[in-house]
Amino acid sequence: MFDRHQGGDRVVLASIDTGDPDYAESLSELRLLATSAGLDITGVVEGRRDRPDPALFAGSGKVEEIGSVVRATDAELVIFNHALSPAQERNLERALQCRVIDRTTLILDIFARRAKSAEGILQVELAQLAHLSTRLVRGWTHLERQKGGIGLRGPGETQLETDRRLIGNRVKLLKERLVRAQRQRTIQRRARSRRHVMSISLVGYTNAGKSTLFNLLAHEQTYVANQLFATLDTTTRQVWLPGAGQVVLSDTVGFITGLPHTLVESFRATLEETRQADLLLHVVDNASPSRDRHIAEVNRVLHEIGADHVRQILIYNKMDLCAGDPGVEHDEYGRITAIRLSARTGAGLPALRETLAELANEFMQNARIGPADDNATTSHPAGR
What we know:
This protein is α/β, with parallel strands linked by helices. It has twelve helices and eleven strands. The strands form two sheets. A seven-stranded mixed β-sheet has the order 6-7-5-8-9-11-10, sandwiched between helices. The protein has a four-stranded parallel β-sheet with strand order 2-1-3-4, with helices on both faces. Strand 10 and strand 11 (336-340) form a beta hairpin. It is globular, with a radius of gyration of 23 Å.
């Protein structure tokens, strides 16, 4: 959908500090995003402003500096660590004489490369179209003409109107397909509800270790890598818990600061699995200095998708990289609120399994007491 870069493209990163206390980490994440996309970072240009420039985001002097680095390194692409307006993007491309994208477009590009399931591919394309519809600067109708389309432009339509109509038609088709996929997920959830099977979803900031923990619990070999968004498509497996029986465990896409709203909207069908879960295991990189901010960002997205009512247990992962021992934390009422462990070494995993078995038994007991209702949301007996 986009004019996607090829792996190994030479890129200059541009980042403007406008006083954000998390600026340094944001720039570090941009480096990781670019690396995850297979780009060759040839330079990083930083600057500081009280507020973004309306026309260029960075000031004209800083744009000249970026241009000098682009020419000196033969870079083919500049990525801004910010959300650029369509006008800013166009102005920067004219000034720099190379392609310019923002953080949002980079994340969408990574998602497009990582999507493997049919539903995931549809969701990413929908998010790309929503983003593209505000720009329409690189053309779109030529893709249809390559497929043999004739007479695409309607009576009195401008090229821009034609592009918007074609995008609108494609968006409508994608949404219809996603609705059908969501109906299938709903049928599967209702079947589990009738069998009184507890549903558990792993959530967390990207690269927190969710997939490693999922592999340990489910005895699976899903893809694990030390990079952002290594997991995109939701993976669901049945897991046997000694003393409790079967539960359903789902590994979901990681969140990140500035996750495009269009992406959250497009993935709402997949994230419905999280909203309808009986328990969320919120996996946290306990060794990260930004741990608390990551927790807050994940909770913000959970609120946005309507999953903040689901009981949540914090999983402080990567204890092998920081001070402290694996263990269990309780609130003043004796309920388990957090578990400290290392998914890499397995330390603390028995405590997690025991906790899940205890909650699964509690869930099944309460489910048998209450009448089955296919139209009702699965109950959350433990509450938050």
